[in-house]
Design goal:
- This protein is an alpha+beta fold and 88 residues long.
- It has one domain: Rv1738 (Double Stranded RNA Binding Domain, 2-Layer Sandwich).
- It is 36% helix and 31% strand.
- It contains one helix and three strands; from the N terminus they run βββα.
- The radius of gyration is 17 Å and the shape is elongated.
- The protein starts with 7 loop residues before the first strand and ends in an 8-residue tail after the last helix.
Length: 88
């Protein structure tokens, strides 16, 4: 099986006390699209950083997906020369 195009996503985490931020960058080979997300630990909860990272990463990827969908809709609008609405 031949390998087609490959997209790579890098997620970088930054932490500040009880907050975790994730920045996700999708490299398509021709452009970079980014999204971000964050999480906050309730002070009453145990300190388990991986949970905050999971939440922040999922939110960053969701934001990234939203941006990617918006870009696809814009490309279709440019081609069709009319507004389009893509279901999410």
């Amino acid at each position: 099986m031949s390998k087609g195009r490959v997209w790579t996503v890098e997620i970088v985490f930054t932490e500040d006390e009880d907050r975790t931020r994730a920045d996700a960058v999708l490299e398509t080979g021709t452009e970079a699209i980014s999204g971000w997300g964050r999480s906050r630990r309730n002070p009453a909860d145990p300190d388990v950083p991986v949970i905050g990272e999971d939440l922040a990463a999922s939110r960053a990827l969701s934001d990234l997906a939203h941006h990617l969908l918006h870009e696809a809709a814009s490309a279709i609008e440019d081609f069709e020369r009319r507004p389009v609405r893509l279901p999410s």
